[in-house]
Amino acid sequence: MNPSVLVVEDDPTLNRLLVKELRKAGYELDSASSWQEARERIAAFAPNLVLLDVNLPDATGFGPLSEIAGTRPVVMLTAYGSVHQAVEAMRLGAADYLVKPVNLDELELVIRGALERSRLQAQSALARGDAGLAMIGESAAMQMLRQTIREVGASDVTVLIQGESGSGKELVAQALHSASRRRGESFVAVDCCTLQEALFESELFGHERGAFTGADRRKAGLIEAAAHGTLFLDEIGEAGPAIQAKLLRVLETGRFRHVGATTDLRSDARIVAATNRNLQQRSRDGQFREDLYYRLSAFVIQVPPLRDRRDDIDLLAAHFIASRRQAQGLSPAWLMPDALARLVAYDWPGNVRELRNVIERALILLGPGEAIGPAHIGTLDSGSAPAVPVAPPATQGATDALMLQGEPTLESIEREYLGSLLKKYGGNRRKVAEVMGVSERTAYRMMDRHGYK
Ligand SMILES: Nc1ncnc2c1ncn2[C@@H]1O[C@H](COP(=O)(O)OP(=O)(O)OP(=O)(O)O)[C@@H](O)[C@H]1O
To answer: Residue ranges of the Response regulatory domain (predicted)?
Structure first.
């Protein structure tokens, strides 16, 4: 399938000309003459690129650009002689710009270049193990989320992001960083769930030489790596009491200390934290410091679960299909309406991560020239959707149910048990931990150990 372009231009003559030229160059085309119409066309047509006029009857300036720049490349059409407009457009994330009157030779070059750069970015994002940093979704909930990110991104306020596992909290944290004046500095993500508390403390705050056995030299902490940038504390609800106390101090005074040090250092990192727990409840129950909760929740962003924004499933599925196929050098695959209907009807306990995994599994099963149908999607109920990559089975054929052969080791029983629960609960770690009767932290470590992450 050829790349698709949406032309948003209210001058009918120019609009027609641009559509005609780009169609001749082999692109799929759609057009809109107002911002409202453009929004509808983006949702329905899901273009790979938007060519956007800076002055539209219902939106002048860069509001529309900021709204969609994170989702796909946008090439701006700016007024002749306005260097200021072009510079501002690039600053706000435009992939490129064209000055009116549009030079038709330049038009195709600019569009091709912008699409190629975005393809390379998607590829390298996939190679890094994520599905691309763009936040996909045009539902009312996602538009509100983007608006909030824009507003709060500009300030230095501490933000707490709440939402179910796999709903996109880390992506929101990255978007906040990109929307802030710190965007040129580092974004350092720290998972408060992964390590032993003592190790975690020295990892986060750094340590002095000789602070503990094995500390043979002074080491800077992640908080220093995030200097002037953003420190993202994922799974903050899992941080132990010592870390909580030190984080509170950083938030209150901007100061911290290397493990084993006697003097303080200053931190200028902006702190953004995320949790899939009800942190307020945990602080009331005495499981999380109340004072730290109040500091962290200076501003709370709630990321809605995927089942509350089913309108996004179509765009997200198309995005995961396109990025996976592009990375493999294949043309995009078509999702059949009955397969989409199945995706839309499902409740997605593992949220966007689970959707991504279902799509990736469907693509593995896809034969050459085939469209994705219900058979590739499989039955989506909480008992059968593998929401996490399946670790190598300990015993042959034991991935669908807990069926062990021979004399299994305890380790293999644990792996199979964990695998079957993850499958059953759509990768929802909290639920799995609850059923196993262990803390989420322990479940997380088990997943790590058995290669389920
Ligand atoms: N709106 C979105 N557009 C595109 N990809 C998304 C979106 N939301 C989530 N994803 C993808 O889904 C996966 C899970 O997202 P992310 O890691 O941000 O979720 P999370 O809420 O932080 O999960 P956890 O609670 O398990 O840490 C990632 O691969 C991410 O890129």
So the answer is: 4-115
